[in-house]
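SAMPLE LOG
Freezer: B-3
Tube label: C17
Construct: single chain, 633 aa
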Amino acid sequence: MDLQPLRMRLSTRSPWVRAGLVAVAVSAVVAAPLAFNAEPHADAVVIDGASTLSDDVTVNWNNGHHGPATDVHVLAWNDFHGNIEPASLNIYGKFAGGAAYLAKLVKERQALYPRRVATVLAGDNIGASPLANGLFKEEPSTIVTNFMNVDFASVGNHEFDKGKDELRRIQNGGCPAGGCTGAPYALPGGGSTNVYPGADFQYLSANVIETATGEPLFPASGISWFKGIPGGKKVGVGFIGEVLEATPTIVTPAGVAGLQFIDEADAANAEAARLREQGVNIPVLVIHQGGIQSGTVTAPNGCGGNLAGSDIEQIVQRLDPSIKIIISGHTHAEYRCTITANGVTRLITSASSFGRVLSDLTLTIENGTGELLSASAENVIVENALNTPGPNVVRQPDPSKEDPTVAAIVAQYVTASAPLANTVIGRIQGDLTRTPTAVGESALGNVIADAQLAATQSPEKGGAVIAFMNPGGIRGDLLTSAISSGGEAIGEITYGEAFTVQPFGNSLVTKTMTGAQIRSLLAQQYAGCSLPNRRILQISSTFSYESSLSATTDCAAHIGRMFVNGVELLPGDSLRVTMNNFLATGGDGFTVFNQGTDPLGGDVDIDAFAAYLTAANPAGVAVPALNRIIEIP
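STRUCTURE (predicted):
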């Protein structure tokens, strides 16, 4: 027996025409309370699942049912971040990723499951992108996604990098200020247009509420209706889209202006209740939040290390028992796990990042009742090469694994960005990585902070004495052995490589701050001191301070003496401090930056970084010593 989805594609320009496969449910967050106790029981949470890609992970809820059943599939990925070209991306010893290769695998899987498949994304399809996507306002990523027959996407934190109005444009189409620089835009039905057409898939945002209306920014959920046999019974699978509640702490305040981000479990439970009212009893939570690697596990992404004690585990413990399947993201981890809490076992997946992995979930549904009997998941590597990664190994593309139409679209944007991307702007004397010391200092973080100080030291540029950089804004490493399509020599850095490191286009800001304010700022770096997790600012060479990781008395106890150019910084001292505009308005939870006075705007961060790399020629930028943050007992 087969379940046939009604697959009329949706037009974002005319939502009332989008009738067939998808029904979109928009709701306010106020709903009737659920008739179950959402408080976690005292029983310990049990986490299990795959430790290798080949492990089978299946959850059964059949309760003795033995009637005819049919499989419905859900294809999912997350955290694509506009990585439309494969570059040298790899995972588990395989070159992997790239839009053309992902599209080929997705379409092959969709063809395997005709009339019984839905395709969803778990956030961050755009944002923090390489140059070929970022140069064109994040539009290429959406264009190639349109060719993959995607139905729904939860918003991710990076969807808000440029604010809700720009995200609406990404959804609905239209040209930004400055015109549609990415034209012509290919259309899945054939032909092209010179006006950005928007997304053919629907963004979902159950826990993102517009302050002015009290309603979700985008629909809270979407429904895939599958036509059942016998008797013509329809079975609905409802996809609830969410982003982490803490999004305002990791996105520039301007990006989340006019929005409220509410508790993930509360919003999901309310939407599950609304879906039941519509006859949809199989809710799937598609959430841009997940687990992160910690401790020792049996595989790089074993379930215990990724999920135990994580934010997603805490959310799962409070979910409506009807929500048994969770498609997660945000942490760039690959996993297929089960979480048992409050007597309910749930399946949870994540597909790494950058289009390197595709999750294929199988939902087994009883024909007569439409009840979910079981679910399993497979994670598949999106392979793209004839060879395997290694030191100085150049990827040999495998044309048989790429979708030719999407490959042509990618080539359009790569070719258009190549003159800028392949321009050599400097050299490095050794690898500059984001790898932190025990106290959180990194070589690349030091160099970026030095670059921002150099761009704002002159009196007319701000008269800065020290500079800070947020570690989350550093999106890649600079390696002497990195091989690029530009053909540059070992140690040479292209603009495209520098852009990958700093893709946000933030501007520099210089403010006057006191020694007391800087001490308070540094105290905010530690977990529980304004931030949920430790987040260490990177600092310029003109500044150093003592840090105690073991301090437990209060937040201020983490910080010892502070020095500017070797002289101790006292509470009453005033000095000019540079940061990017994300930090300047309290981004990443560093609210003390708001206390700075006399702000002066400066260069864009990537321009300052590029200029610093160029100025270091011909010798190149040296690898700095990691001694700016001094660990003390």
